[in-house]
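Priority: medium. Attachment 1 of 2:
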């Protein structure tokens, strides 16, 4: 994919340039009140400006840490055309723009101060045509799963019920079905979006393929999506198994998991969580086909050479399984600080570094979590350069999380220290766990040059806020 094919290829993508570049540090332009009135008249949805009664609730994100963010206004989209109207207005008045769907951005990008927020949550329809599923950009992952289950279908998604499906997809989308069917972005077949210059676009493997490349892993930098079309998967019953191991055996469990996981059946998912809370606790979540839970747990236990202190096994429908594995996820208003590393190999030495980092957190009496998730199976069926998501030949995503930290800066310091400790073994970060200071280099590795080319073509003024500024 060359720069020439991007600008002049079969997709027909030509984006007009601009004399200026807007960075996140430049304040938005002042807009005349009459212009705001004009925007309000053109919308079928609603415009909420700073100082108006609904402003606080309109700009509010999932994480209360960002309640102090001050976007210039929020467009509550009612129909896809409202997105084009809002983005064109922002372009004409020199405003940064931010998209809001689930509102789970770990850096508060979907309520950026000074930006015009385009809230697409009302675009939450679902249409099913055989195994092709089209959803509005405002739907959450669990709402989509609930609706699709009526047709015996599902999508490979993560475990957080309230997460916006569009955000999960555009960053990649690891989850319990990814080893069997690929990530959420791997099931994407087309998307409708509005580019930062206000132009509507349909992107797929044959229409604007360069934009489609971006949508699968770096999609937040392309534009504001209004709908997504996927190739769905069957909704099948599952065994959900939870194992608890002694905290002092966490490194042994993690090493055994790393040796066992790549050879396990692709229908099996297993994640290791090591928790700092009054000491160290090691937990493994296994999700596999119904009837396979006991056998799969026995395989993992043998690989870990450690006897669990507790074991819980349930056989559930696909939807009930999704509900069950998301039961401990955060609730609206909860503060969460997060970051991530990606490791190519998870050797015993790497396991020791991970466990030492969370143990250090526990020793000072603070809480935290490190979650280690597999990147193998069907994820590796797609070449590392075939989509913007770069981590196709790596072993695991290591996700560092602190909930309800006080103050958040201290949690960021710990996560930064964990990043540095793992640094010699870390290939980079996972965009869906973006943290302050993350760069295109860190999140996209060998794909960074193409991501930058696309960003310059699609958004030369850097008007679109997506959590990465460099």
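Attachment 2 of 2:
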């Amino acid at each position: 994919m060359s720069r020439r094919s991007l600008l002049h290829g079969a997709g027909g993508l030509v984006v007009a340039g601009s004399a200026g570049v807007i960075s996140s540090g430049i304040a938005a332009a002042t807009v005349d009140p009459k212009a705001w009135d004009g925007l309000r008249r053109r919308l079928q949805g609603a415009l909420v400006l700073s100082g108006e009664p609904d402003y606080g609730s309109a700009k509010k994100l999932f994480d209360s840490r960002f309640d102090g963010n001050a976007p210039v206004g929020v467009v509550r989209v009612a129909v896809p055309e409202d997105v084009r109207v809002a983005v064109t207005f922002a372009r004409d008045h020199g405003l940064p723009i931010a998209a809001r769907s689930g509102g789970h951005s770990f850096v508060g990008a979907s309520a950026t101060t000074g930006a015009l927020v385009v809230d697409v949550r009302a675009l939450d329809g679902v249409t099913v045509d055989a195994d092709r599923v089209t959803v509005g950009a405002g739907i959450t992952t669990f709402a989509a799963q609930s609706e699709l289950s009526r047709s015996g279908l599902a999508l490979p998604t993560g475990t957080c019920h309230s997460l916006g499906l569009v955000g999960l997809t555009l960053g990649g989308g690891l989850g319990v079905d990814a080893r069997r069917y690929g990530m959420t972005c791997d099931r994407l077949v087309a998307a409708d979006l509005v580019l930062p210059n206000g132009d509507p676009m349909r992107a797929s493997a044959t229409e604007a393929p360069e934009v489609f490349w971006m949508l699968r892993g770096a999609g937040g930098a392309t534009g504001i999506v209004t709908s997504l079309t996927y190739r769905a998967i069957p909704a099948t019953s599952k065994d959900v198994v939870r194992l608890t191991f002694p905290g002092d055996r966490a490194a042994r469990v993690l090493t055994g998991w790393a040796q066992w996981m790549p050879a396990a059946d692709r229908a099996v998912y297993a994640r290791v969580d090591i928790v700092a809370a009054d000491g160290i606790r090691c937990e493994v979540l296994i999700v596999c086909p119904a009837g396979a839970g006991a056998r799969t747990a026995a395989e993992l236990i043998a690989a870990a050479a450690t006897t669990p202190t507790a074991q819980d096994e349930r056989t559930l429908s696909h939807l009930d399984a999704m509900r069950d594995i998301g039961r401990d996820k955060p609730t609206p208003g909860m503060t969460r600080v997060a970051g991530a590393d990606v490791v190519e190999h998870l050797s015993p030495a790497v396991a020791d570094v991970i466990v030492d980092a969370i143990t250090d957190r526990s020793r000072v009496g603070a809480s935290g979590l490190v979650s280690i998730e597999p990147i193998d199976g069907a994820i590796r069926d797609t070449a590392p350069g075939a989509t913007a998501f770069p981590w196709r030949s790596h072993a695991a995503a290591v996700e560092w999380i602190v909930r309800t930290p006080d103050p958040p800066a201290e949690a960021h310091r710990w996560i930064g220290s964990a990043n540095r400790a793992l640094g010699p073994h870390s290939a980079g970060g996972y965009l869906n766990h973006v943290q302050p200071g993350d760069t295109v280099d860190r999140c996209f590795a060998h794909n960074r040059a193409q991501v930058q080319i696309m960003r310059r073509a699609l958004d030369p003024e850097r008007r679109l806020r997506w959590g990465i500024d460099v």
